[in-house]
């Protein structure tokens, strides 16, 4: 059985981006496959970023975005602790990451995920047992 997969907000945003139809289709299929297997994980930060991005950047109606947010929240949801903030700060310094990316990496590590799906982070990069995968790029 495959391990858990953490989703960065940019992948969730693509599920609503009709202007990028190929990425939208891929993001939807990936989410549905991982969610149906009980492997999808997000964090509170990812849910917040999703809502802000689709309502502000894509113009999705807030009531529709809220409904979608509720669906995403049915996956495994990680809430940060103070220790996660400290660990993320260390990751940011040690790996030269933006702090908010380091928070996402930290939450994926704490969730014991094998994969972090992200378009924005460096594909192939590893943090302990976690691998960054860009689902829109063929291996």
From TrEMBL:
User: Which residues does the UniProt record annotate as the domain PIN?
Assistant: 6-120
- Write down the SUPFAM superfamilies for this protein, in alphabetical order: PIN domain-like
Matching entries from Gene3D superfamilies are given as:
5'-nuclease (3.40.50.1010)
Q: Name one Pfam family in it.
A: PIN
Q: What is the protein's given name? A: PIN domain-containing protein
Q: Which organism is it from?
A: Wenzhouxiangella limi
